[in-house]
Design goal:
Layout (H helix, E strand, L loop, with lengths): L2 E5 L7 E10 L4 H14 L2 E12 L1 H16 L4 E4 L3 H9 L7 E3 L9
Parallel strand pairs: 2-3, 3-4, 4-5
Antiparallel strand pairs: 1-2
Helix pairs in contact: 1-2
Length: 112
Amino acid sequence: MSQVNTIRPTELPSIGIARIVGPIDIDHARKTRRMLLASLANQDNLLVDMSGVTAIDSAGVASLVEAHNTARRNGKAFALFHVNYPVMKVLKLARLDQAFTILSGAPGVRII
C-alpha cells in the first residue's frame, strides 16, 4: 500500500517533504493525490521523496501532474527527488522529466 508521510524540516520551515512508500498505481493513486494536495495546502513548497516508490502507472503519473499543476497555480515549488530508475523511465516516456523539477537529493535538508 502506498503511503505519504509529510515531514517539516526545522532548517527550512517553508519546505515540506513528502515521502512516498510503495506503488503509485491505480489502486493507490487517489490516496497519494489527496495526501500530496493536503501537504501542498499546508506548506509553502513541497519536495517529494520518491526513493520508496516501487512502481508507478498512468494513474500515479496523473497524481503527480495534478500536484505539480496545483503548486504552480498557487506559486509554490514542487520537486521530486531520489527518483529511482523504473519510475524515471516512466516519467521520461511521458516526457515529464522535462516538466517536473527532479533533484538527485534534497541538499541542505535534514530530516528529523
